[in-house]
Amino acid sequence: MSPHPFGVFTAAVIALGALLLPADHIAAQQQATVTGQVVGARGGNPISDVQVYLVENQRGVLTGSNGRFLIVNVAPGTYTVRAERIGYATAEQTVDVQGGSPAVVNFRLEDEALGLDEIVVTGTAGQARRREVGNSISQLNVSEIPSPPSNVDQLLQARAPGLTVTQGNGSVGGGAQIRLRGAVSVSQSNQPIIYIDGVRMRSGSYARNQQASSGAGRGNNVTASPLNDINPSDIDRIEVIKGSAASTLYGTEAAAGVIQIFTKRGSSGAPRWTVQMDQGFSRLRPFAPDVDVRPPSEWEDPNAATYTGPLGSYSYKYLNMEPYLRDGFRQRYSASVTGGSENLQYFVSGQFDANDGVLPLDEEDKAGIRGNFTFTPLNNVTLQVNTAYNRTDITGTPAGNNAQGLTLNAFRRERNYFGDPNPDSIRKVLDQDITTRIDRFVLGGTLTYQASDAFTNRLTVGYDQAVQDNRNIRKFGYFQFPGGVLYTGAHSFEVLTLDYVGNYDLELADDYNLTLSVGGQTVTNNERAVRGEAQNFPGPGNPTLDAGTTQLTYEDRERTINAGFFGQALFGIMDRYFITAGLRMDGNSAFGESLGLQAYPKVSVSYVVSDESFWGEGMGDLKLRAALGQSGRAPGTFDAVRTWEALGYGGLPYLEPENLGNPDLGPERTTEMEVGFDWAGFDNRVTADFTWYRQKTTDALFNVRQAPSQGLPLSQQENVGEMKNEGIELNLGFALVDQENWGFNLDGNVYTNSSEVLDLGGAAPFSAGGGWVEVGYPVMAARGTTWQNPDVTADPVQCSDTTPAGDPCYNLDQVLGPQQPTFVLGVRPSLRMPYGLELSAMGEYQAGHYIQDGPTDNAVGRSIRWPTCSDYYLLADVGNRDATTAEQRFNCEASLLRGDVIRPADFFKLRDVTLRVPLGDLIPRSSNAVLTLSGQNWYRWRNDEFPVFDPEMVTNTGFDNQNPGITEHIPPPATFTASLRINF
Amino acid sequence: MIFDSNTNGSWRRRAGGMGAALMLALAPAACDFEVTNPGPVEDDFLDNATAHEAMANGVMVQLADALTNAAYTTGAVTREIFPAGSTGSFGITGAQQTGIIRYDDTHVGTPWTAGQRARRMAEDFLTRFAENENVTLQGYEPAVETALWGAYTYRLLGDAFCQAVIDGSAAQDRSVFWERSEELFGEVISLAGGDAAFDDEVTAAYAGRAAVRANLGDWTGAMADAGQVPDDFSFNMNYTTQQQSQYNRIYMAGANSPYRAHTVWNTFYEDYYLDTEDPRTPWDLNPNIPLGDAGLALLDNERALWYFQLKHDQPDSPHELSSGWEMRLLEAENRLMGGDFGATTMELINRHRVELGLDPWAAGSLAEAWTVYKRERGIELWLNARRMIDLTRWEENSTPGTLSTYETAGHPDSYLVANQTLCYPIPEAEYETNQNLGSPPGT
Q1: Which of A520, A652, A654 sits opposite B27 (nearest CB)?
Q2: Which of A424, A819, B68, B153 is buried most deeply by CB count within 10 Å?
Q3: Touching A: B residues 171-230, CB under 8 Å
């Protein structure tokens, strides 16, 4: 037993806050203060997190959630007070501060939709103003998101065009698959790389909790995401750059894009507390047709010649899962405090989450603490230290494609591995303990040294460590393995980041500026795992590996280093024309011996047209931009070297070929061109940004297949392929109604993606990511069955040259389309009402892609009654098979079913509906409070040809899989959350 | 947010600062990208003689994988066992349930891939041993074992597959596999050089080569080799309980753990065992779990009774590769080929039965002798991956005699289609990657 983490972390937050309190308390005793409130010009709502500071001495604070601020200890005098916040035009006022009485300054900030002078960091050399950046960059300001997100995956979902976040399965603890502009690789991860406060963190999944020796899936079959260790309440903003045109300076590993998370920083002033409590539940929605497909033996009259209806009420809409499902209680508590003195500011927070899940054993508990400290020891030196510790405990229900899992055996009813649909029998699988603990520690420090007005240096050192402990026990006496089985895995993941960038600003002449930047970076990944399994224990209890009569252990150690340096020149003319050119040089320990440093160039242009004299005031703000750049993806750690695997076989050592090796192996290289514009007009009431992009991956790492008769490893990575991605992104925002008490905004985005394999470099077509890679087809295309005369009432045959034109026949393994959506539409309406009430919604439509439905294939192949065949059964059950069509027979008869079941995955989901109710200072001693009621994913529309499951599921291997896919999991549930946030 | 407006440095300071910045930026370029990760064994290590035993074992493990997969599928399509439903990873595909092995079945690829890997490793390793200055090949145990496993691998490939392909070649007659097998068996005998320490390996080589030579039609050679093998000799491929991938697949797929994918129900062996209790074909049932894993299209989607075989009753139950009893039957077959069904022939057929205390078979005609011979060989080599090649050889030699209706293609009792498959086609993966092959047959 361990102490409850909530208590530990809450106590720690309170203790740290209390420690920091006295200094500010003392500071607050000073006589002269500047105070006031910042509200929006549109609607007059208070704006939080506005940086308000005195220009003369740069001393400032952030506004609270009620928009109020207080700058203390101000010497008497006249000051310019400036208010700045992303998304709003900067405002200034002059104030005369007299000793002994507070000076009051109130601001009404105008929206600045384009934010051309906002600072962005990701993809730039250090930082840049948005007007200088030639590529698209999406920025999510978390305070503007109305619903309280339960994790970072959910926070990102449907927030930006080109950003696709696939929910995953209905078991707790699973992470989401994230794609930026589709897939740029067929052999390497397409998950973007992730930074938090400048520190690279692990973006791949944690280890799946399953047996060490084989992939039979004895576990809950989900993979947790490091991204979801981050407390969403700690996040200030997220920047997303989607392709190589923007990610060049990240080099070899950035072709799939970059997501950078910025956590909140402290601001000077008295401590300000925020506490938040979320309560809610998750509920599984029906995911199969509401039909009854029980066999005639279970009809009211089993001997009837025609269907007489079922015996009693029954429905397959949850695929027999009703007896095991529950509403999963969700609770979340968080607290934070921010404040500080002139030289030291802090932000400290703690959280505790508990999510019971809808499956009977599912439970996920999270606890975490964060401390972000800004220290300014000299007026030109700033040290920012961010540190966080999180603990996640996941208890799983055996699920997925797992013969000893709950879901598979429930779905298959009387033809499950018990041969018995009785829930009391099936519940025997719950006699398994599947637990995962993840301890995560992130420490990052950034030292900024302003050597002169023109010369800035920034050095970041970061360390991200996660320790994962998996245990998976089928207890002694377990019905299918009476001796018991234990799997255990101890995993360690470390990422060490060292990053330097220096910027030098030169004013060449009036209106001509040049910023020169140099930088270097190393990222070292170190992964270790010791996994073991044991069987046949002497008796009941909680065993360890050594208690089993047979024991097996595995060890994996993998270390990779990527390092590079870059140079960049940013040339600006009249603060409206900007040209940026840069070059990144990279080395990587996974490159082949004969490969040296790799160069990735980039160039971009930006033109703020609206700053021209010819541009009419009523035409709004317009920036044109274009960017061309390269970045890459490194091969796997061992892919370049010829290796053998050393293993054991009943006490005998043996070797088997592992990797053929390729000394010339290098990174795949993605070149991206993007062109677009950002525009805001009609008094900022209409905004639009548009981007056309085209990515071409050359030297693509393909697992080139070897003929099995060669007797060698079946594939070897080679830099042989070429493929492309292209499409558009359009983001639109309309403030349709904008009155004092009422407002209605309609925002939306459109994203398209078309991918194609251009060249295989002589390699044979091959399978990858659950799809097919062949020239002329989408990357990792879904292959399925196509038909000739499917509605003819006859047995189908495979089409051949001799098949008569009128006969029904099928073609197997035909390319149907991509597995990633080709069209995504996001819609976000919001209604602002009197008293600050706000009702908002978010919907997302995805289309053009296909997904493999494994459970249907598996069930029909075993002659299991399946709801997709209800029409067929209505005829065949009463001896009228002759009236069934060729396609029905093919899809519903085990002897005829062949090939994979592939379904069009078009869907619409109502991602979120949220009502936000400001409570003002209704709660005693609070400065303000907000109550939020929020529902997620309660409505879903699917393509008619997609009758079961959900198009956003992932297979047993979790979100690391290249594409979505369905195994015997339940879909993600809908959730409801009531959240109360109070500021003190 | 805090700037010092008075920190305007000199040109020299600026240049120095930029230089330092540049050095910091370039520092990564000085990184040593050489990373030594433990785990994978680099190829050079295989030149060290201490690795040679593990290399020989590597050939054996690949053969084990090929053999256990081939034995399972062979058993299903020849009705040594009857399918009990599952078509997935441990199941019997819908086509195989009817007696057809398709080129695009996932199960076809495993014995091909593992077998090809085993034979390539064996040949490469023998070359590598020969080129190693520290190794004297004659009497070198890793070489003898490597050659032996390689020879059995080639025998399995020849027995199982309709055609041969070597190193991406065009399709060739399956006899190419047997010829290479014969050559490697000979290599075993030669490398052993009469050393008594290798008696088992040499006897196994004779037994294996006898079977190969019979399939090649060299009955003289086959009889010469068979004569070297005593009755009680048995040479096995062992499996392990170490991990699931090293289990005997027939055990794993058939056991209630949880697949129950095959059954002895509706095979010749169901009644035969009840009648005789022949220890070579044991099976049992569990009244609490009477049915197989899933519905069968063959049975109008109903499930088969689950009678689980007990020959391979543990995860590490071995597969017999060769035996003296098999040699006696081969000697009987040689006599039957010559039309001899006399007492000597029948004694050879029945010798093991008598040893086991079972009633001997009797035959009043050559056809009857062939019938009981085919029956006895099925019993003796039950689930040993040999039935397809035996049926093929007998068919090619137009031998008389009948099979049980439960194993007769096209007979309703067997649920086998008339054009039952008696050898594996070259698998789809080979067609997709080997430019010297055309399209798969029938496409």
Answers
A1: A520
A2: B153
A3: none
Q: Which of A122-136, A319-333, B209-223 has the lowest mean pLDDT?
A: A122-136
Q: What is the mean pLDDT of residues B319-330?
A: 98
The C-alpha atoms of residue A714 and residue A716 are separated, in whole angstroms, by 7
**pLDDT interval class at A310 (50, 70, 90):** low
End-to-end CA distance of chain B: give it in Å, rounded: 73
Cβ distance A729 to A693 under 8 Å? yes
Neighbours of B173 (CB within 10 A): 12
Average pLDDT value for residue range A208-213: 84
Q: CA-CA distance, A587 to B27, in Å (whole number)?
A: 12
Is the bond into B258 cis (omega within 30 degrees of 0)?
A: yes
Average pLDDT, chain A: 89
Q: Could you tell me which residues are beta bridge partners of residue A445?
A: A385, A461
Indicate the pLDDT class of residue A216, thresholds 50, 70 and 90. low
Interface test mutation site (partner A, options B62, B86, B87, B285, max chain A beta carbons within 10 A): B87
pLDDT at residue B350, as a whole number:
98
Q: Does A403 touch chain B (CB under 8 A)?
A: yes
Using a CB-CB cut-off of 8 Å, the residues of chain B touching A657 are 117, 121
- Give the model's pLDDT for residue A463: 96
Write out the two tokens for A419. 């041969």
Whether the Cβ atoms of residue B297 and residue B92 lie closer than 8 Å to each other: no
Nearest to B167 among A382, A552, A709 (CB): A709
| Complex-level ipTM | 0.91
Specify whether the CB–CB gap between B172 and B163 falls below 8 A: yes
Cβ distance B43 to A453 less than 8 Å, yes or no, reads no
CA angle B204, B183, B348 (to 5 degrees): 40
Structure tokens at A687: 């905004």
Residues 671-700 of A with CB under 8 A from B: none
Predicted confidence band at A215 (pLDDT cuts at 50, 70, 90)? low
Q: Kindly indicate the confidence band of residue B247, based on its pLDDT and cuts at 50, 70 and 90.
A: very high
Whether A520 and B40 lie within 8 Å, measured CB to CB:
no
| pLDDT surpasses 70 at A771 | yes
Distance between CA A95 and CA B123 in Å, rounded?
Answer: 90
C-alpha to C-alpha distance for B70 and B84, rounded to whole angstroms:
18
CA B390 from chain centre, in angstroms, equals: 15
Q: How far apart are CA B1 and CA B22, in angstroms?
A: 25
The arithmetic mean of pLDDT across residues A425-433, rounded, is 94
pLDDT at B305: 95
A310 DSSP assignment: B
**Cβ neighbours of residue A740 closer than 8 Å, sequence gap 6 or more:** A43, A44
Q: Which of A587, A326, A328, A103 is nearest to B31 (CA)?
A: A587
Residue A965 CB-half CA count within 13 A: 26
Q: Give A392's DSSP letter.
A: E
* Residue B439 at interface with chain A, using a CB cutoff of 8 Å: no
CA distance B362 to chain A (A): 41
pLDDT (average), residues A375-379: 89
CA distance A297 to chain B (A): 12
Local confidence band at A302 (pLDDT 50, 70, 90 cut-offs): low
Distance CA B345, CA B342 (A): 5
Render pLDDT for A503-545 as a digit per residue (tens, 0 to 9). 999 988 889 999 999 999 999 999 999 999 998 999 988 899 9
Q: Which of residues 45-64 of B touch A (CB under 8 A)?
A: 45-46, 51, 53-55, 57-58, 60-62, 64
Task: Choose the closest CB to B296 out of A597, A656, A863.
Answer: A863
Neighboring chain B residues of A376 at a CB cutoff of 8 Å: 2
